[in-house]
Amino acid sequence: MVDTVQDKAVVVTGAGGGIGAALARRFAAEGARVVVNDLDAAKAEAVAAEIDGIAVPGDASEIVDHARVALGGHIDIYCANAGLASGGTEAADEQIWADAWDVNVMAHVRAARALLPGWLERGEGRFVSTVSAAGLLTMVGAAPYSVTKHGAYAFAEWLSLTYRHRGIKVHAICPQGVRTDMLTAAGSAGELVLAPTAIEPEDVADALFDGIEEGRFLILPHPAVADYYGARAAAPDRWLDNMNHIQQKWEAAQ
């Protein structure tokens, strides 16, 4: 059992299914009190009932105060997991870009804005950001998703470097393919790039808890992502050439 989670008050957004539901179940199994958030109220309530948690449905950007009340006055751990897998190129509609930015980045900013005053006063708090390997690398066929996930990673990194000496712990989870509805929504690009090495949502939860025990910021449920990330930094043109070959392969299959 993870001692740092026992009896903690936890919020998981986008927890009606997929990674969020797996995180909610794991936190509950480890003895935490869990708020399950999702835009789909029925899904949130179903997961909450399963784990003896509390359903707080609604927009992830606006639920911190409601969740705090539901948990008895404070939040110890906040999992910013809700996300949009927005595909398209630079030509994607302005609203698609705006929605991706709002959900994948600004929801995290708004949550941190609401949580940090109390956490800094107490000298402790834990912010878990579900990013994606796309936030470290990129994803073919999904400019809005790739760009905003880079933003989500950058914000998590900034939180960690700014507040770690004041007791704030931050984790950025960056999986590749995970067998969820989001993978299905990725279509042919997801089938080509992500599906061959896809893992289960529970594997992501396991990776997070390993990272919590070890005090790690960067959580990589697919360890190979560390090699890709290193290659991207060390030889960006070679990495871009390799990614462009994948892009061409995807285009040829359309």
TrEMBL record:
InterPro entries: NAD(P)-bd_dom_sf, Sc_DH/Rdtase_CS, SDR_fam. Its EC number is 1.-.-.-. Pfam families: adh_short. Keywords: Oxidoreductase. GO terms for molecular function: oxidoreductase activity. PANTHER family: 5-KETO-D-GLUCONATE 5-REDUCTASE (PTHR43669), ALCOHOL DEHYDROGENASE, PUTATIVE (AFU_ORTHOLOGUE AFUA_3G03445)-RELATED (PTHR43669:SF3). This is SDR family oxidoreductase.
